[in-house]
Amino acid sequence: MLKKRRLFTPGPTPLHPVVQEAMARPILHHRTEEFRAAFQDSAAGLQRFLKTTQPVLILACSGSGGMEAALVNLLSPGEEMLALVAGNFGERWAAIGRAYGMTVHELEASWGEAVAPERVDEALAARPGVRAVFVQHSESSTGVRHDVRRLAEVARRREALLVVDSISGAGAMPLETDAWGVDAVVVGSQKALALPPGLSFVTLGERAWERAASVTSPRFYFDLRRERAAQAAGESAFTPAIAQVVALRAALAFVDEMGGVDALVRNAATLAACTRAAAGALGLPLVAPRDHGDALTALKPPPGIEAGAVVKALKSEFGSTVAGGQGKLKGQIFRVAHLGYYDPTDILGLLATLEVVLKRLGHPFALGAGLAAAEAEYLGREHA
Amino acid sequence: MLKKRRLFTPGPTPLHPVVQEAMARPILHHRTEEFRAAFQDSAAGLQRFLKTTQPVLILACSGSGGMEAALVNLLSPGEEMLALVAGNFGERWAAIGRAYGMTVHELEASWGEAVAPERVDEALAARPGVRAVFVQHSESSTGVRHDVRRLAEVARRREALLVVDSISGAGAMPLETDAWGVDAVVVGSQKALALPPGLSFVTLGERAWERAASVTSPRFYFDLRRERAAQAAGESAFTPAIAQVVALRAALAFVDEMGGVDALVRNAATLAACTRAAAGALGLPLVAPRDHGDALTALKPPPGIEAGAVVKALKSEFGSTVAGGQGKLKGQIFRVAHLGYYDPTDILGLLATLEVVLKRLGHPFALGAGLAAAEAEYLGREHA
Fold first, then answer.
1. Which of A194, A284, B154, B347 is disulfide-compatible with A16, CB 3.0–4.6 A?
2. Separation in Å, CA of A80 to nearest CA in chain B
3. Which residue of B lies nearest to A255 if distances are taken between CA atoms?
């Protein structure tokens, strides 16, 4: 049988056709009016995307680079930071902090759960020296969502900054950067925006910019003050990833055309709800039954079936790549993405092939049961 | 919700990525060794595709142009021809014949049925002056398959040529041009080969070439003798559709890589079988319950629901284009393609959205019933 190459991974996600077209154009020179227009349009679109009036800086690096940029501009060596660790990516905040000599405190949650804001409040009360709290909006390794709104309230009350890795969260789940008072947000291009990896977007709030003026961590490429000054003049500090920025403008125009970031968020929410409904009907336990987000769904295989066998069969028989587990959950789960350029036909098609695969692997269930639940969930929701 | 643009029409069909890539390359000049290699590779690949040792001529025209080319090279004005008319495209053979002053006899079948070889035998016995029989391998307006193998036997016995429009048949259903003794075959690029429209492929058997040498129909662009001579020298007679030929080579290489045309035919057969199984479970009558082919499935809507409403809802809610009815069946049916670059995820996804649409339109059935039947059909088949 024919099998198309389909990515259902929480990054990279499928490229939007307008992105592919834009990246196929002849390269522009970056010190031209034509490129400056693309750059400035993109920066403005990112402000709408993240709901902030602060500049959103466009960096030529992957999401981890954006995380590093946020951290080194907000803490000086030796300062205390609190990393909320609910999965593989929470550990990354701690690792970056240690690399720069910060005093890193970790607050862990069992994988599959979020770190509750109350626990953060207690930790900050116990450690008044903590200058900043670092968290994942969407923890891609488990599908967990952190309550960024309430975490921002807690951090503000305790006079710490809240720094959010929303790399796989923005565009998939609600995020009101200014209204919630989030101090720093980091996003990656290869997620909800349906671009290839290679760009990261970082925005700092007012309190964070004040801090950035005085912190002493060594930084050059990731010195956001320089980048902000350049961007205020309509340019980037260093050579921008030109083709990607041109594609970014196209992707953001698509988001606007669709009805804005809220529409993209609703899209992911519906696809996630359909997937959870199907999982329930098929007897596949959710990794995050309570704190799940909508960027992706992490699922456990049924008893007696290896997660790896499901991943492998979807790929070998149908060409579809779902993600396996990471870190502690390696080999134990599989993950289906909803963020970005996916539509109901994609997810329903994947769920049907998942039924075929589970049946072949000997899981007992009535064929069509997952689809029936997913379709019923879809029909029960409001659509524009 | 996001909705991707998806074509489930029996031409144009989705472009294969290798085709898109090839067409995006800088244009070659056609009188160069580089292009000659692409042209000759394509011609050789088409011989494998149609299972013939005769040259397959590559024309820059749509499928109807290829039909005209076949007809004007095989009949002289005033000669008798028999057109088998089982749908909209059968009527095209008759119309071309009349445009060139042929004496056209038509043998009709009810739409949704094939013209039986026995009836052709009787017709040829009654009209010994008929020089050629014209037929659709796959009648795209109804999904009907003609029995080309037996029609070729009948025609040969009655000393008439058999000319087959296999525009939507080749690559979707078995076709053994040489082994079955088919005298002429016409194919289009925008069907199983997953190219855009713009190329037609015509091959004539030995008896047909003899006839072509003496017929007097006026022809210039479609004079296949000139084209054959040019192609023997490794070129086309007129400016070829360069980018499309380069893409054709890529498409044919993909078919070879997949395991040859038989694998592509099996792919369509499985997708068609799954679709028919779902239709049965959902209570959607087949337009061609007995003589259906595998290039597409034509379906009637359930009682009380307009076919147009199904077509419209799939497009407006999910971005998927299925074809409506043509000619006599306009507004009464809808058609789902299987030929070309489709995989199980495509068809299962479409069937799930069809369930959603039917439910919204008030059709009573158990959600998931169509998918259960399609998945069971898929699981019951042998796959490579």
1. A194
2. 43
3. B2
Selected residues 271-290 of chain B with any CB under 8 Å from a CB in chain A: none
* Chain B contact set for A4 (CB, 8 A): 341, 343, 345-346
> Which DSSP category does A328 fall into?
G
Locate tokens 């990112």: which residue? A46
User: What residues of B are in contact with residue A348 (Cβ under 8 Å)?
Assistant: 348-349, 352-353
CA pair distance A38, B257, nearest whole angstrom: 41
- Among the partner-chain residues A317, A346, A384, the one whose CB lies closest to the CB of B349 is A346
Question: Whole-angstrom Cα distance, residue A381 to residue B193?
Answer: 39
Q: A123: helix, coil or strand?
A: helix
Residue A150, class by beta-carbon neighbours within 10 Å (0-12 exposed, 13-18 middle, 19+ buried)? Answer: middle
Q: Report the mean per-residue pLDDT for chain A.
A: 97
Strand order from edge to edge, sheet including A6-8: A6-8, A320-324, A334-337, A296-299
CB A61 within 8 A of CB A241: no
CB contact A26 to B (< 8 Å): no
Q: Could you count the other beta carbons within 10 Å of the beta carbon of residue B240? A: 21
Cβ atoms of residues B341 and B9 within 8 Å: no
The answer, for B99 touching chain A at a CB cutoff of 8 Å, is no
Nearest chain B Cα distance for residue A1, angstroms: 5
Residue B382 has pLDDT above 90, yes or no: no
Query: Do B276 and B296 meet the contact criterion of CB atoms below 8 Å apart?
Result: no
Q: Which residues pair with B138 in a beta bridge?
A: B145
Q: What is the dihedral of CA A140, A144, A148, A154, to 10 degrees?
A: -120
Model pLDDT for residues B192-247, shown as the tens digit of each residue: 999 999 999 999 999 999 999 999 999 999 999 999 999 999 999 999 999 999 99
The pLDDT tens digits for B127-174 are: 999 999 999 999 999 999 999 999 999 999 999 999 999 999 999 999
Query: Per the CB < 8 Å rule, is B2 touching A258?
Result: yes
Rounded to whole angstroms, the Cα distance separating A165 from A151 reads 13
Measured between alpha carbons, how far is residue A361 from residues A301, A307, A312, B328, B374 in Å?
11, 11, 11, 47, 18
**Does the distance separating the beta carbons of A371 and B344 come in below 8 Å?**
no
Q: What is the pTM of this model?
A: 0.95
Kindly give, in sequence order, each residue whose CB lies less than 8 Å from that of residue B33, ignoring residues fewer than 6 positions away.
none
**Spatial CA neighbour of B281 closest among B379, B372, B357:** B372
User: Judged by CB atoms within 8 Å, which residues 327-366 of B form the interface with A?
Assistant: 341-346, 348-353, 355-356, 359-360, 366
Give dist(CA A116, CA A146) in Å, integer: 8
